[in-house]
Amino acid sequence: MSSTASGKNGTWRNWGGNVSARPARQVAPASVQELAAVVRRAAEDGLKVKAVGTGHSFTSIAATDGVLIRPQLLTGIRRIDRESMTVTVEAGTPLKRLNAALAREGLSLTNMGDIMEQTVSGATSTGTHGTGRESASIAAQITGLELVTADGSVLTCSEKENPEIFAAARIGLGALGVVTAITFAVEPVFLLTAREEPMPLDRVLAEFDQLWAENEHFEFYWFPHTGNTNTKRNNRSAGPEQPVGQLAGWFEDEFLSNGVFRVAQWVGRAAPATVPAIAQISSKALSGRTYTDIPYKVFTSPRRVRFVEMEYAVPRAALVDTLRELKSMVDRSGLRVSFPVEVRTAPADDITLSTASGRDSAYVAVHMFRGTPYQAYFTAAERIFTGHEGRPHWGKVHTRDAEYFARVYPRFGEFTALRDRLDPERLFQNDYLRRVLGS
Fold this sequence. Notes:
The chain has helices at residues 32-45, 95-104, 120-125, 163-169, 201-206, 208-214, 246-270, 275-283, 295-299, 319-333, 375-386, 402-408, 412-422, 431-437, and strands at 5-6, 12-13, 20-21, 25-27, 49-51, 67-69, 77-81, 86-90, 107-108, 142-148, 154-158, 178-185, 187-188, 191-200, 217-222, 228-237, 289-293, 307-315, 341-346, 361-369, 391-392. The protein is α+β, with helices and mostly antiparallel strands. The protein contains 14 helices and 21 strands. A hairpin with a 6-residue loop joins β2 (12-13) and β3 (20-21). The protein has an eight-stranded antiparallel beta sheet. Strands 7-8-12-10-11 form a five-stranded antiparallel beta sheet. The longest helix is centred in the middle third of the chain and has 25 residues, at 246-270.
């Protein structure tokens, strides 16, 4: 994946290509003090402020016609505290750089998502997550953060310092201020054994509770127009380390999962009638494999085929019904869906606007190849997800608004009240936040 890009005319576009904006100015502060000055000047000039990471959100959460803050100079590890087992990192640091740096120090995050191109602040602010029976999202691993608020103040937040802000700002949507540094809990680096295995969808759904209970991290991909899935089970291992071989890794992760898959997507986009046949072939292309490696080399994988995505968190107990309804909808709709559906889980957490706030959750993500019409599919899927009180990922396509969120988030009012206090003039407002949080 590449970073977010700006065209010659100053237009900013996200990675998925479905969001663009033309900010009045773009700045890359080299220090927290410079960033605070940028915020104060924008307020004086009557311009809105948004910070952007690498553009991996599919919503317009970072779009602005005001001041766009780019964090590429705010990178690197500030400090590692081996006594408290924490690492403090600048907000613009890409997750891939953090993961590699921690590994060199013999440390690791407990859990992570399936890509690592995002900045740490962008990933946490939108609720990026992986899959886990007990281990939750990246934001749930935060023990402290630094925040520049609308008046240019720099706040340090943790469970002991500004705890009410800390409870919300871990997934703050960019609505409370600009995150400039994050402190994560870490642990000694460990090994994970990954077992990837094709499995019929009917079996996965029938045995889902057992598969979830028996594995620290369980996820699967279902290929629409088929009854097939690829499953992945990650569990801690005493070793020895047995990474995927270089040639085998290139063949499966690059040649098949990216190269051949991209060609299949091109064919499906040009000739939709071929999609079901392509899906049958794709669902059987990857064979089972088992390997053992350090966490970020197991949790994450390259994603070079560009797409647009919608993802909802439903109560974990509702997952099987949700998947059956989704499959039934696709089977009877005449839609041609060329991308697999991704399913993961997370335990309940205590972050105000986390999609797993207060309830054990399962995530269902639907995708369409970039440039392929996706609205009909996403609209039908969203109808199913909201029927189960689903909560959309803050960085992925959805049509929900503040009225809906007030119903599905018991602590929604806490967040909006905090926003009223920290940003009464709505310096960090944009159209997306106006829709999802209200004016």
